[in-house]
Amino acid sequence: MPKIDVGKIWSLNYRLLMSVITSVAPDITELGLETKELFVLAEVEVHPHPAELAGVLSMPKPSVTMYVKRLEAAGFVRREIDGSDLRRHRLILTPEGRKTMARGLALLSKAFGARLARLNSAQQSELATLLEKLS
Amino acid sequence: MPKIDVGKIWSLNYRLLMSVITSVAPDITELGLETKELFVLAEVEVHPHPAELAGVLSMPKPSVTMYVKRLEAAGFVRREIDGSDLRRHRLILTPEGRKTMARGLALLSKAFGARLARLNSAQQSELATLLEKLS
DNA sequence: TGATGATAGTTTATTACTAAACTAATAAAA
DNA sequence: TTTTATTAGTTTAGTAATAAACTATCATCA
Predict the structure, then answer these.
(1) Which of 36-75 (A) contact B at CB < 8 A?
(2) What is the pTM of this model?
(3) Which of A76, A109, B3, B32 could cross-link to A97 by cystine, CB 3.0-4.6 Å?
(4) CB B50 within 8 A of CB B82
């Protein structure tokens, strides 16, 4: 029974993601945000509080502060004080933010999808299932 | 027929990698290098020229210059001028570099392996196969 | 040859990122 | 209560990363 090489899988996967990010970065920039800002934007609805975003995205809180500031300045999100806890900021996606997010994710999906196209439909579903289990 | 959500696969995978990197970063630092330096170190034998490393790892050339400088200062690689092309530097892994690389990759494998353990053996093989197709 | 364009790697000048320290609000315990 | 500990988010201060420009070598072709 062939034992799988964890390090190799890691490296393949890492390089795959990095090359996709690198290839779409210029197009994302044209939308008026940076790739990391897009990642934040894409999680805002599910995780509307900065501290949560930092956790989910594995980035330090000060980075989230900065990205949110930029997203806010660009009109992609606005923020409210959470009534039940005055320390918390609740982030809200603006219509413009939603539109830009959709465009950005579409770019990413297109580039990643080009890779995924090497798999047939059943394999794609299988991959989705496996990655969901890992997350 | 359920169409898969490319963006969702992407996001799951991205977050998986980032959380693994974040969790092992402190231990890797204790080995005397940073995570990105480890990624460079791990590719040196297959891609001994800085420009190649930049391409394979999707990072800018000046970043490679910096990482290689540090790896050299730490005694993990040394460099020679390529006789056939005086512009090129051939990087060579030192014994110490090889040892440190192995330790670093072991840390990464352990952390990633802990996630992989959520899958049974057949599923792990399946994942390996799928990712290999994508790379 | 020698002139032109391309490539390898570095340096510089600048921007991006983040650790550490901070303020403010909440929670829990004394 | 009030004190201690925790948590949310920001600011500051310093490091990390990189785009743009540079030097040196190589390749091609007139």
Answers:
(1) 39, 42, 56-59
(2) 0.90
(3) A76
(4) no
Task: Report residue B2: phi and psi, to 5°.
Answer: -75, 115
In this predicted model, what pLDDT tens digit does every residue of B54-69 receive, in sequence order? 999 999 999 999 999 9
The tens digit of pLDDT for each residue in A45-92 reads 999 999 999 999 999 999 999 999 999 999 999 999 998 999 999 999
Alpha-carbon distance B89 to nearest alpha carbon in chain A (angstroms): 23
Q: Is A117 on the interface with B (CB under 8 A)?
A: no
Q: Torsions phi, psi of B90, nearest 5?
A: -100, 120
Q: Which helix (H) or strand (E) holds B104?
A: helix B95-116
- Contact by Cβ (8 Å): A4, B128: yes
Task: Return the SS3 of B90.
Answer: strand
Contact A62, A68 (CB under 8 A): no
